[in-house]
Structure formats: structure tokens, C-alpha cells
Amino acid sequence: MKGPAAWPPLIYLVAFFLVPTCLVASYSLRARDFSGHIRAEASVEGWREATGSYSMPILGRSLALAGAVTAACLVLGYPCAMVLARQPKGQRRAWVVLLSFPLVTSQLLRIFGWLNLLPLSLRGTTWGVGLVMAAAYLPFMLLPLLRACERVDPDVRLAALDLGATPWQAFHRVTWPLTRPGAIAGCSLVFIPAAGEYLIPHFIGEGKVTVLGTMIVEEFMERRNWPFASAAAMVLLIVIVVPAAVSIRLSGKGPRARPGGASE
What we know:
MetI-like fold, globular, mainly alpha, disordered C terminus, about 260 residues, 11 helices
């Protein structure tokens, strides 16, 4: 996109992403008084707390939970996408509408629905939080995988089976390389928001499952430790940018399926 058409998205990114990020970064380098007010003097105390012994285990727990949710969505999404890709076009579109419907409803309403469905033994546990997060983010994995599987000619896999490949070998040698860009895109769409998730750990975790998202909100809203919370948010941003950059790099590599089914 070039010329005047590029200005609206550029202005949007600057106003709603770059400027807030710079403000948060500036707060992370400021000091605060005993009442929680930000002072003008510079300080790195917020970064010391954000990289200290209290925050690092929480960061590790958040990343491990996001990784587990991403893996679960990938394992569940692949067979579903492969089955849906073989359905007639009309039925496939209907399934896509049904799968996309949760994305247009309020996440808060869905969380309260899960509160009624979950057994009491799973509330306030990491397993319960992970289960609800996997259910919430599964469409973000499934839709890119479905698009990637639609572009793969099914005869390619059948040819591999006819040549003596086992189903696992056909998947590993044929399906996976051709659908890998969709898998990478789905992993990014799940891992990045899951790493900073707040609502699900807050309500399903019932205050017993502390992740980085809940810790940041706690420090901002309750303890009024804005430098610490801002530094923790910047740490999370840095950690998230790395897999995002890797996914962009990897999604442009490897064989891709043409619309006609042949691989490039």
C-alpha cells in the first residue's frame, strides 16, 4: 500500500500503538512516591522489580501456560482443519460461520458461561484456566489451518500413500510442509494474546492463578505501582515480539501450495 491510502493505517498505528507504548515505556523509567504518584525523576527501580525474583516465575508461568494452550490448540485444530477442508464448499462455509460465531460475542459472557459449566474442582486451578483459554483461542488456530489445508490438493497425500508412505509419513512429508505457514500463523495468533491474557485467569482462576496479565493489572489498579507495572508490560511486549518476528520470518519460508493444489 503506497501513497495517500497508506496514511490512515499509519496514523492509526502511531496514535493507538506507538504513542501508548512510548508512554508506558516512559512510566517504567520513572520513580513514585509513597502514595503511588509518579515523580519526575528517573529511576530503574521498576525494571529491577519486573526482572526480579517475584516477577520472573510469574513470567515463566505465563509463557508456559501460553505455550501449553498453543500446543493444545494446534493438536486439536489440525485434524479438525483437515476434515473440514474435505467437506463440500457449502458445508465448509457453514462450519466456518459456526466456528467464527464465538469471536463476535463478548468474551466476558463466554467466561461466565464457562463458570457455570466448569466443575468446582477445576475453578481456581491452572488446569481450569488452561482449558478455558484453549477453548477460547481454538478458532484463532483453526481458521488459518483450515485456509492452509484448503489450498493443498488431496491427491498429493493420496499419491504419497499409494507410493507406500504410512499415514504419519504422508502427514510429516507432505501435509505438514504445505500447511506449515498456516500452523505458524495460528500459533502466533494464539500464543501472543494468551501470554498476556487477563480476563480468563482473573475469573476462572479466582485469584489463585497469578499470571503476568493479572499481576500487571494488580500493580496498576490496586497497588498503584505504575513503574513496576509499566516495566512488566514492556518485558511482556519484548518477549512477545520475539516469537512474532520469528513467525513472520518462518511463514515466508518452505513450500507453499498454489490455489490449484501444486506446491511452489
